[in-house]
Each structure stands twice: as C-alpha cells, then as structure tokens.
Amino acid sequence: MSELTRLTLSDARDGLRAKKFSARELTEAHLDAMAAARSLNAFVTETPDQALAMAAASDAKLARGEGAALEGVPLAIKDLFCTKDVLTTACSRILEGFKPPYEATVTAKLWDAGAVMLGKTSLDEFAMGSSNATSCHGPVENPWRRRGDNRPLVPGGSSGGSAAAVAARIALGATGTDTGGSIRQPASFCGVVGMKPTYGRCSRWGVVAFASSLDHPGPITRTVRDAALMLQAMSGHDPKDSTSAPVPVPDFAASLTGDIRGLKIGVPKEYRVDGMPAEIEALWQRGVEWIKSAGAIPVEISLPMTKYALATYYIIAPAEASSNLARYDGVRFGLRVPGESLDAMYENTRAAGFGAEVKRRILIGTYVLSAGYYDAYYLRAQKIRTLIAQDFEQAFTRCDAILTPTTPSPAFALGEKQDDPITMYLNDVFTVPADLAGLPAISLPAGLSDDGLPLGLHVIGRAFDEETVFRVAAVLESAANFTAEPTR
C-alpha cells in the first residue's frame, strides 16, 4: 500500500470519494510509513489507535455519502496545537505530561472536516528556532541529503517536524505555525508548500503561544492545491479568539485558475541582500521570467524598512514570549521541580524546564520590557513595525502580489550553525516582514541548489487576499514543475 503515501492530499480525497481505497487503508499506509521513518524523529507522539478509529468513522460516513471536505485524510499536527487528551508539550520539558482537556479551534475544524490525526510532530521548543534542533526530543532530520554528502540536514524550523513528515510521505499534510517564517522556511528546506495566512484568518485559540501578535497557524502540504483545501478547513472566525477576524472564508481552491494575465507582481529591490548566493538570485530571476511568460507584469518596488525587519522582530517576539511564558512556573501544570521556597521552586522548574534558546529569548524579552528600556527598544520597535506595514500598503498600490526568495540558502547540516544565534536568526530575513505586517504568504518548491537541495519561491499578498497568493503560486508551481524527491 506504499503507493497510497505518494498521493497528494487532493488525489487521496478524490480516491476516497470514488471508493478506490478506504480511509483505513490510507491511514494504515501512512502509519506504516511513519514507523519506517522514525529515524527522522519527525513525530514526538504517535496516535495509531486514534487514527484508526477516526478512519473507521470516516469510512462509515463515506459509505453513507456524507463525507466532509477532508474526510479520511491523514494529517500530522504540530505539537504546539492543543489536542484533547493527547500529549501536548510544545517540545519543552516544562510541559512534560500535559494532556489538554480541550481541543484547539484549528484542529477541531480539521476533525469536523473529517481529517484523521496520525500524531504530533516535533518543533523547536515553544516554536523558537530555525532548525528544529532546540526540541527537548532531539533534532529532526530533513529527509533530503546533499548530493554526494550523507550528513543529516536540518528541516528548518520551527515547524520542521511537520515539513519533514510531509516531504517524507509520512503524512498528506500537516499543521504548522509561523511567527517569523516557521511554516515557510521549513517548507523551503524540505521541498514542500507552506502557507502562512493573514493574521486572524485562522484562530490561535488552543495554540501554545510564543508571540501573540505574530503567531499564524497554517498548512504544510505537497502542492498548492492541497494547501488551499487544507486552509479552507482551518479558517473561520472564532469568538474564543479576540484576534480572530470576522470575515468570510472564500473557496481558496476555486482561485487556482491558472490565469494571472495582467496581474502586476512586485519585485522588491531590498531583498537582494549582501552575500546572497548566486543560485538564490538565479531562482528568483527564473520566477520573474515564469510570471512574465504567464502574462503577468513584473514591477520593481521598494520596501525601504525591510532592513529593520529582523531587528524589529527580535525585539517584539522575545518581549511577547517573556510575557507569555511567565505562566510556566510549576504551579498549575507540567514540570515541577521542588525548592526550599516558592521562589526557589519557580527558579528550579524554569531552569530545568526551559532550553537554552527559550531562556535566551525570555532574557532578551524581559530586558526590552524593563523600566528604562521599554521606550528605547519595545516601543520603538512597534513604531518601526507600523512603518514596515505601511511600506507594504504603499507597494500594493503598484502591484497585486510580491515575489521574493523564501530563504537565503538551502538546508544546512545539523549543528552547522547552532552555536551562532545571529546566523541562525538570519534564516528568516525574507520571511519576517510578512509576519510583522500580518500578510498572507506562501513558499513553494521551485528548483534545486547546486548540491541537489530544494529551494523555494515566496509570494506575499494583501491582507485577506489569499486567493491571489494561491493563484500566483499555482502558476509558478506549474512552471517550475518540481518533481524531485528526498534522496535519503
């Protein structure tokens, strides 16, 4: 049944409806693939019994002709989404043993749409990282390898487990979250599609918070159409989330017309950063040629505040993390390390429970929020964030979407940059601005590096205009015709 794992989500859905195979057969094929690929460490919690029970329920619905939009489709869930009675740790020791008594809104919507949960995927601890190496469960391996080099590579982060699972054909799709690029960067590194919707399109309720004004739930899939189908099921207003937008959810898949004639596509000059590899520049130029061939019009635009985006992000995100992670103190849930006093218990629990990167960001965040520094750092960063958003607003008076590379490099070897946090942070240089502005953006695989690793192109759109983003991405996907598969 291994051929079932090679289907796209869309094809699997159609096959289930046509009764070419059952939901149980499809789920069993993916459970077998998951067991065979455990060396990747993509999953931190497997839920085979629950998956088979959900598949049986889907088969019963399909037999009655009552199948919902994703009926019987096996998915992986990032371990940042609370899943009722299923271990949810954000890959941190401090949430050891935590089984939520409630379901995140996004996953509840997926189950309502008939999807099947295979298990929970690894992530950088509390979504803080760009390599999926800060998980308390150990690093995740990218299923790709450099040509002639068998060293394990990072899958990107923080949604590296989700991206690796989709790339390795262990799951038909997966949920991710994107705070500074954590859906799109791993999608680029693993040769899959990663969609970050507009802030507020998908509810954050039940998603373990990193930076509340920046966290965006979204899908990781193997095709643009699959991302459109999955986002459709994940989206919608949620009264439990005050940041959830009360806007209608369009039919995203209907936007995949293949026709972008007359659209103006912005090419920002500021994204040509110093030291960018020639192969990234060449891929970007090919993307421009592809949209021209499809009848779209490339337009050079300027996003002058882009150069401040990364510094702005690394003030705002740690500040919000410092506030959000204050709740993890050993009192109510998760890990508790006893001490001689209440303060000592707090200190012992947080020292043992948080990893080095989380501690680093909490310290940065606490510093920029402290008396005497709040105005100098945090308040100034918020003002620059507004200017970055205004840059995009101005650019969209001249274009309908923006085309950039996704990352400044292909995947790198495990441990290669781990001791240099600044270099690690630079992985998000192209993705952070869209998070700060809350705009929809997608990464799709568009070519291979000189050593045979996937490279992504990146499309950014206006707020709540995911339809145009999907429309442009589908045309680029067709032109790129990316058929390469992981070599591991």
Topology at a glance:
Blueprint: H1 9-17, H2 23-36, E1 43-46, H3 48-63, E2 74-78, H4 105-112, E3 116-121, H5 160-167, E4 173-178, H6 184-190, E5 193-196, E6 216-221, H7 224-234, E7 264-268, H8 278-293, E8 297-301, H9 309-324, H10 342-353, H11 356-369, H12 374-395, E9 401-405, H13 421-425, H14 432-437, E10 441-448, E11 454-461, H15 466-480
Parallel strand pairs: 2-3, 2-4, 7-8, 7-9
Antiparallel strand pairs: 1-3, 4-6, 5-6, 5-10, 9-11, 10-11
Helix pairs in contact: 2-3, 5-6, 9-11, 9-12
Record keyword descriptors for this entry:
alpha/beta, 11-stranded mixed beta sheet, globular, 488 residues, 2 domains, single chain, Amidase signature (AS) enzymes
Main CATH class of the largest domain: Alpha Beta
Q: What is the number of domains?
A: 2
Strand-and-helix sequence, N→C? HHEHEHEHEHEEHEHEHHHHEHHEEH
Task: Please outline the major beta sheet.
Answer: 11 strands, mixed
Oligomer: single chain
Report the helical percentage. Answer: 25-40%
- Contiguous runs where pLDDT drops below 50 for at least 5 residues: none
What is the total tally of β strands? Answer: 11
Q: What's the helix count?
A: 15
Would you identify the CATH H-level superfamily of the largest domain? Amidase signature (AS) domain
Instruction: Supply the CATH architecture of the largest domain.
Output: Alpha-Beta Complex
How much of the sequence lies in strands comes to 5-15%
Instruction: Give the structural class.
Output: alpha/beta
Strand order within the widest beta sheet = 1-3-2-4-6-5-10-11-9-7-8
What fold name goes in the CATH topology slot of the largest domain?
Amidase signature (AS) enzymes
Instruction: Supply Rg.
Output: 21 Å
Name the shape in a single word. globular
Distance between the ends? 20 Å
